[in-house]
């Protein structure tokens, strides 16, 4: 939403004869498209399930607690991760947000998942209505206008965003060039 459109615009200006199809989905969909060779590049967060791909890290993205404005911790500087066990939790990505699930596993947290949403924006709207809280990466929340509070986690947590490219030895030159554009633009 925030990073790729200007890169695609520059790439298309320099290479007008190369067509780009952009598909958007949750992690499991993107991985499926890579496995089925429907996508040449997948943009997603790092994970051990990407070992079959060339992985090109691009940026660290902090994870945030997204709280209703009237939450008791809304005026704090950070949100204690372990507090999640006491919250009504809204889980994006149809209840399968791998980054949040990994965070919960790392801290041995069993959240009270009250709602699951497909999109983070739906979750933020639910949080704004006081239906619970969630954890999201900062880039997802960027420029979203809602009456919610976003706090860094304590201890600080982040995800690594990057590109997964299947078959790096046989990737078409246009795909390799686009990957270089992305790397140079974000670095």
Describe this structure in words.
The chain is of the alpha/beta class and 187 residues long. Helix content is 30%, strand content 26%. The strands form 2 sheets. Strands 1, 2, 3, 6, 7 and 8 form a 6-stranded mixed β-sheet that branches. The protein has a two-stranded parallel sheet with strand order 4-5. α1 packs across α6. It is elongated, with a radius of gyration of 18 Å. The chain starts with a helix and ends with a helix.
Helix content: 25-40%
**Sheet of most strands:** 6 strands, mixed
Q: Compute the CA-based radius of gyration.
A: 18 Å
Count of strand segments = 8
Cα shape: elongated
**Strand content bin:** 25-35%
Number of helices: 6
């Amino acid at each position: 939403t925030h990073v790729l459109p200007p890169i695609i615009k520059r790439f298309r200006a320099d290479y007008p004869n190369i067509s780009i199809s952009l598909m958007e989905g949750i992690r499991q969909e993107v991985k499926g498209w890579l496995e089925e060779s429907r996508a040449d590049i997948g943009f997603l967060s790092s994970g051990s399930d990407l070992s079959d791909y060339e992985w090109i890290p691009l940026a660290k993205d902090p994870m945030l607690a997204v709280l209703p404005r009237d939450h008791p911790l809304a005026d704090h500087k950070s949100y204690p991760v372990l507090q999640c066990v006491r919250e009504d939790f809204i889980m994006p990505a149809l209840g399968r947000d791998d980054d949040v699930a990994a965070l919960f596993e790392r801290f041995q947290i069993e959240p009270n998942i009250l709602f699951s949403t497909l999109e983070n924006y739906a979750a933020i709207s639910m949080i704004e209505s006081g239906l619970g809280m969630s954890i999201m990466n900062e880039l997802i929340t960027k420029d979203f206008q809602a009456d919610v509070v976003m706090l860094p986690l304590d201890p600080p947590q982040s995800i690594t965003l990057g590109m997964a490219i299947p078959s790096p030895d046989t990737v078409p030159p246009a795909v390799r060039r686009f990957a270089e554009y992305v790397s140079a633009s974000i670095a």
